[in-house]
Amino acid sequence: MNYKVKISLGLTILGVLLFLCLVGSLFSPYEPTSIYLAHKNAPPSFSHWFGTDELGRDLFTRTLQGIRISLSIGTLAAFVDLLLGTLWGTISGFANRKVDSVMMRLAELVYSLPYLLVVILASVILGKGLIPLVVAMVCIGWIQMARVVRLLVRDARCSDYVVAAHALGVRTPRLFLAHIFPNIVGPMLAACMLSVPHAIFTEAFLSFLGIGIQPPIASLGSLVGDAIPAMRFFPWRLVFPASFITLLIFSIMLLSDGLRDLYDPKKRLHEGGL
Amino acid sequence: MSNNTEIALERNALPVLRKIAKKLIHLTVSLLALLSVCFVIMHIVPGDPLQEEQGVPKEVMASLRHKYGLDKPIMVQYATYIGRVMHGDLGSSLRFPSESVTKIISNSFPVSMHLGLQALALALTFGVIFGAWSAYRSNRSVDVGMTMVATLGVSVPSFVIAASLQLIFALYWQLFPVARWDSLAHTILPSIALSIGPTCGIMRIMRASMLDMLSKEWVTMARMKGISEYRVLLVHIIPNALLPVLHYMGPITANLLTGSFVIERVFCIPGLGQWFVLGVMSRDYPLIAGLTLFYSIVLYLIHSFIDLITAAFNKRLSYNEGGR
Description:
The complex is a heterodimer. Chain A is mostly helical.
């Protein structure tokens, strides 16, 4: 499958989901947290498209809220990762050997701590909510980005155009911004796209266990978690949130795969697609 | 000749020793850092493990705090903690006072390990086979289909897989027991649920590295020499293509360990993950700290083991001392 198919398929699914998030609430008159005990555990119908949960809350509205939360956590975490990682990676990539090695040792030290354990520990101190969760994820998430950026910068520094620019007397800040950055922004973006699904996964995982986003706010993970005890009798409560979280991550994965292929011409050549 | 080997040995032995020493120092520093982080975090957190005890007289409360050492200055608590950990005593759980953390770990780790190893075996077997097949038939319909399935497989959260398997195979068709951990039949669904993500991950990596190998000149050369296609595949291509999969084993094992939190929860398996979640929810400091430490040591040992195997397989790596 070539990268164009991947990118366009990923973008299409993601676009549909985004569209649903933005205008979906027009199609359902319910609030995500309003309770109608008379309609509890209703199967999907025209009034409740995805049915309702054990408190009679409309699942369509709650699933949309979950997608919004997942997307905002994913993009926010990826963006902060990108910022921190670029800063650290660039400095480390330009610095002399000693500074570089110290910076990378530090990064390695933090990186060798198990990701999920640290996120859980951090979210325990920071409290429960969207922003603390993102901060907890960024604590470790930025390192992958920093490593990628450092390697890219190091690679670029050895290439002829940078040596030439350096020989012509271009100063370091300009060297990075005008010469190196435009050449590495593609692979950086591809790496950054990978941290979006990672963050979404982590949030869903924690919410599923009951230590992430707290009720009454709906998250795709907690929706699935709440549905499991009753899944034998009310399977729709499991099916809809579960398939939406899968679709969401699937589209972003396709997009990041496609971007990676796009910026890795060698690999594109092997796959014979162009 | 023997002189040469001796020199070679000497030259090789030193870097290896240095590497091991470096690794040990790294391990000690990171474990100490982790322990301190754990300790500090647990003491910054608002709330006290004993605050939920209601209707306890002040004197009893004070003696309880004294018993668990919660009334001493924080540095003293830290020092005693580190000292005890050095002796392999991780303290006793605050919520389950009859159990020591070491006992909890030694009771539940075999269960988690059994689950993890079974899932790992499944993931490796199917991931490698399907990945290789997919690459060998690249850009045909088999490959496109399998790539799609693999991408979908890495996108499904493990709890969704676990719940769906439970719903279909245990509740609707009643082929397997729904939950718990008693016999071999109980282990099948959890292992499959845990292995799907890693399987698809290995498939993707195997496919990419196979494609890379298939276009190498020495493969064309081997074919030119008239070696049978099976031999080319099994002797020349696949062993070389396995290297990136080996590199990926570290993240995979970490994935299996954390994935088991959810799987153990869904299938009610009395493993380490259950205890960890329980510990976090009830702010059981010694339990959380002990389990975090244990998880890190296990992960670290696995990482080093994988490093060793990779070095043994990859002559180029061992040649220039660890490569990158």
